[in-house]
Amino acid sequence: MNSENVTIYDIASDAGVSIATVSRVLRGEASVSEATRKKVLDAIERRNYRPSSIARGLSSRTTHSLGIVLPKLLNPHYAMIFTGAQEEARKLGYTMSLFPWSSLDTREYNPAAMLAERRLDGLIVCVEYLPPDHDERVLSALQDLRQYMPVVLIGCVPPSYDFPSVSNNNAAMMEEIVRYLASLGHEKIAFIGGVREDHDPLRRDVGYENGLRDARLPYVSSYRVYCRGTAEDGAAAFTGMLSSLKREYWPTAVIALNDLVAMGCMASARDLGLAIPEQLSVIGCDNLFCTPYLVPPLTSINTHQQRTGTRAVQLLISGENKKETADWELVERASCAHAPKS
Amino acid sequence: MNSENVTIYDIASDAGVSIATVSRVLRGEASVSEATRKKVLDAIERRNYRPSSIARGLSSRTTHSLGIVLPKLLNPHYAMIFTGAQEEARKLGYTMSLFPWSSLDTREYNPAAMLAERRLDGLIVCVEYLPPDHDERVLSALQDLRQYMPVVLIGCVPPSYDFPSVSNNNAAMMEEIVRYLASLGHEKIAFIGGVREDHDPLRRDVGYENGLRDARLPYVSSYRVYCRGTAEDGAAAFTGMLSSLKREYWPTAVIALNDLVAMGCMASARDLGLAIPEQLSVIGCDNLFCTPYLVPPLTSINTHQQRTGTRAVQLLISGENKKETADWELVERASCAHAPKS
DNA sequence: GGCTATAATGATAGCGCTTTCATAATCAGA
DNA sequence: TCTGATTATGAAAGCGCTATCATTATAGCC
């Protein structure tokens, strides 16, 4: 642009020293006399010099930049993970680039090529529930990437994947949620899960069933449905479930995959004239910013997504090969109440 | 990592050609015989070779990567801008890195230094309403950056900033919103604006006043308050306004800075026993994903943030020095109705 | 004063590519 | 068969740094 690129040579000649000395000053090495250091810093200031991270990266073989791959930022769930990761990266002196999930998924070109070329110092990948054919391709893309940089996974990690990771213990979460609802007197508890959780060792539906068993409640297959994670899908799934059931068998509580799905359920319940929480308790997951402003405010699960992002970065940098589980807690709001008497 | 880094030399010797030829194949130059091209591609495949974008960037002086600076991704408004920008960048063969606003703002170290060092091919900056002292520092940071890469601004761009930009015509938006509410019979229309819009040539409050004048409605200063853009702030601002007013002077409609603030107003109204939309019409801005699921669904303004992001990238790449205005439209939902009779 | 340890600086070889420029091979046309 | 284009390749000079090793200046000591 404007100023022709100032290089280390310009600074060196301005300050009357060698480029090695300038480089020492840049990297904060101790063995430079105060007088020289000052000359160099003055020249840098005068010329408004900024060392090129590109050149630096080439010769030092480290770029101080990390990457994160996620499905879509428009879902606040991922925005939170990203934010946590980004802040931690920044603290540790790294920048963070974001890549859409399609970077791994597409067939247009070698999926991981672009990422591999970037010579990142590390990569975080948020793994969603994958259709089976994707699964293999993604795994091979990940293996490929791993040749170039350390990789940490977030989310649903199939047991066959041998990667460091941070994931939720969805099963335990669901177990406790069922217990919670049972303690409120609910006996007809519906469950809306995510499609294709089969690969998840900590899948929610297992926790749901265990929870029912613990509470000595019968498992009713019609109470269990699956959907993709949007509000529309949630509404459709819930409406579908109710329409297949006689009114007296309608559930008195529903556990949703996430808050978006819960929002869909609430809309659907409103359409059907079901009062929340009097006739139906609803519980979501993710604790999105809008949950307190829904009517009634939505009870949800805080899964500490930011902290998940943070931990992923820490694992990446430290190089530990751990599989971690994020902790979580129930955030009680007004959408859950005692089961109706009838 | 695993495989020692394969370089262009390895491929060259594998294929029995010079590195110049390998480079030609990589860049898809025409002047390579089919036979040679095949030999090279085979070697690349065999060794699983990926050219280093770092080295490439150093010698070609272009990185094919863009940056975007924004306040916070947790606000879906910015997530939408980012998504639009990212998709367009990808289409054009660029990657996009995200930097928190504090990159420009902090005093800890030279604000723009990190960005300048990255030698991006271009940078988008989302400018928020700034406190006056920030304003100068940000401007100088932007000027500084501009020496290294083209910069495009999004959002509130002070007239003194001579940068290409994409912004909203907030004034025109507000004018039309006031007209809309007036057409529904509202006469007491409140307005919650953003703090420090003073620098915005298209500031909302100006549009608000113009709208009132056009509708021949009196301007009442108590109906106009300001807040930062969160739901909590919105609730506080609205509650504050009402508490300073006798009940008969309470507004029958409120225009909020954005949907978050509108959500705050709705909560506040509910607390005060005001029915929406029977006693109070509420209108937000940004058309967030959750607006249809609020009770009642929130009328809002679609400002096409994704398209804004897209355009910003196009301006960046094309190098046009234009100041553009995004278009927008009212999305009517149930939170606005005719003014109450009384 | 002479000699070694220490601190400060310089020369220079990469890092892995792109990009001239030079050279060799191929092919029309006369 | 020879000439001048044209096409296909190679050699080598950067790009702007880091990092090693060599060199010089400074100090400390007997």
Write down the CATH topology of the domain at 170-302 in chain A.
Rossmann fold
What spatial order of strands do you see in the largest sheet of chain A?
Answer: 2-1-3-4-5-11
Mind telling me which CATH architecture of the domain at 170-302 in chain A this is?
3-Layer(aba) Sandwich
What low-confidence regions of chain A span 5 or more consecutive residues with pLDDT below 50? none
Number of helices of chain A: 13
Determine and state the CATH class of the domain at 170-302 in chain A. Alpha Beta
Strand-pairing-aware structural class of chain A:
alpha/beta
Instruction: State the helical fraction of chain A.
Output: 40-55%
For the biggest sheet of chain A, the summary is: 6 strands, parallel
Count every beta strand of chain A, where a strand is a DSSP E run of 2 or more residues.
Answer: 12
Kindly report the oligomeric state of this protein: homodimer
Series of secondary-structure elements of chain A, N-terminal to C-terminal: HHHHEHEHHEHEEHEHEHEHEEHEE
Q: Based on CA inertia axes, which overall geometry of chain A fits?
A: elongated
Hey, which two chains have the biggest interface?
A-B, 57 and 57 residues
Q: Strand-residue fraction of chain A?
A: 15-25%
From the N-terminal CA to the C-terminal CA of chain A, the straight-line distance is 75 Å
- CATH homologous superfamily placement of the domain at 170-302 in chain A: Response regulator
Radius of gyration of chain A: 26 Å
Average pLDDT rating of chain A: 91
